[in-house]
Amino acid sequence: MAGHDELLKGLGLDVELHHKIFDSIDRIFRKTVLAQKDRPGRMAYFDDVIHGAHGARVQEIVERRAAGDKFIGTFCIYVPDELILALGAVPMALCGGTSLSIPYAEKVLPRDICPLVKSTLGLALSNTCPYGPIEDLAVGETTCDAKKKTWDILAAGGDFHVLEVPQKKGPRDRDLWHEEVVQFKVRLEETTGRTLEPEKLAAAVRLMNRKRRALARLNELRKEENPPLSGLDALVVMQGALVDDPLRFSERLEALNEELEDRVRRGLGVVPAGAKRIMVSGCPSVMGNWKLHHLIESAGAVVVCDETCTGTRYFSALVEERGGDLDAQIAAIAARYLTIDCSCFSPNDERIASVVRLARDHHVDGVVQYVLQYCHTYNVEAVRVASALKEAGVPSIKIVTDYSEEDTGQLRIRVEAFLEGLSR
Amino acid sequence: MAATDLFLGLDLGSRTTKLVEMAGGKVIRFDIFDTTHDSILKVRARLDRRDYARAAAAGYGRYLTSAHLDCRVVTEITACALGARFIDPAAGLVIDIGGQDSKVIQLGNGSGAFTEFEMNDRCAAGTGRFLEVMARLLGFSLEEFGRAACETDETVALSSMCTVFAESEVISLLASGCDRKAIARALHQSVADRIFPLAARFDARGDILMAGGVALDPCFVDLLATKLCRPIVVPPDPQLVTAVGAALAAAR
Questions:
Q1: Predicted ipTM?
Q2: Which of B14, B60, B75 to mutate to test the interface with A (most CBs of A within 10 A)?
Q3: Burial of A130 by CB count in 10 Å (0-12 exposed, 13-18 middle, 19+ buried)?
């Protein structure tokens, strides 16, 4: 991770603390992801995306900004990247996945909110996130209470825009969301000093759809009887999707998919026959957080699907490629994003049905419902998800945890016992 | 030459280590001793140079044990379920409260060891450790603590289940001249209240069996049975259930 000291210093970061935090992330990455055997060769690119997130990618964005493009930081997959890309700006999800920045957030925030929000704010407050200083606009949203109030704190530090995500999916909510997307376009035009052009928006829609198709193809390959890719590696790809350049990412993922298809043809899987197939459902695992997938896979099972924001929720459903009229294109974008079944919605029957469908499609032996501690909506929705799965004959277990390592012993017992319970 | 039907079960818990030998479908020897940093040496010293057909280890120290002794690894959930079914074939639900964990395991009718389980959160609230800390604070041994709580109908209101906060609350109650037996009863009640929702989640057909060291506390068992409106079966030596299950897992 070192080697970009001048760049980071130039951005005014606390370089020493930055290295302390990111060397630790790197250590976890090596102990979990890189310690796996017989990984597909083309995963090397995605490992580089993780490594470059605090080096090469920062450099790239600094250069883009010098050329006049803007950089837009986001915190949720509800933010329509198409609008940002169509204006020649660079979008990137800046959610924190490390426990090491959390103490810096707890200087300000109460302890009992989710680790993702604390980690994110902690990176900003400890002056260790290289993207903070180069952000032309940060975009928050209203998918949870802790985030909403954190935006108010972060907004004091620079330009901030909040997208109101509705809590229901009725006609009024659709109108509200559509209006929010229109307003977001106006704000982005102000920030970039550019005017949204229909051809460029159509191209951005095609690009994002290409990226989603490639991710969906990868997900299809995980349905194989012996999946050609571990769940940990699939997660690394997904984490890369949130930070990498979308065109380059799509090309590299399409290449990886070809390698995986070849592995399938040659009968090369990542697990011995009889390994339990697990789906992870619920909260995201963003960069720095490989805890749950490592725990499940080091116990001998394989994660074959992620029904999370770092999984199907990110790439399911395409934006309808209408072209032409700008209004119609924006309407199509708004409609696609409102299909995301975040647990902030009530009711959220679509998500419950989708979990059961994915569990069947991926032939899973069991589902691990992943709840980041203090994420109330996923934690409570787990009740209905568990009973729907039970009705469908799919065993499930709920794991509530944060980013720290201190509960690894207890979690290992739960996960191993769950797997033992499936072996009969 | 290893004896063909001598099986060893080990349960390396957070507070105590349990060792069970089974032969011919019976427990022929057992031992319980405190878990320490060198438990593995103590286990070795107690193995008596006997020949086991197979061995299995459960508990927090299971991997450490399997690295030093030739034995299988099994989680305490599976082991506890196997042990409970062996000890009481009519058992449908096991409530196991140990030093660091509380677990409720539904046994079901199928061929598997269990159908579902619930565990406490990561903190010590609602575990044997909580009762142990509180007993010491009140100046009771563990045996006296449970007996004293049985000897009174009086109780006091306690607001905190957190071991750290409950400690300061108990200190204030003692300072205000409150009867320590009543405080002991209230502390027992608070743990029973904590375990109740874990257990009540399950549709318990068959006996409710209690395992783990806390099952030796008569006041706790009474209060939990009252809360559940169901009798609770406590086997002789409830701390051994998981180690018995480990020996059965070794024999499988």
A1: 0.88
A2: B75
A3: buried
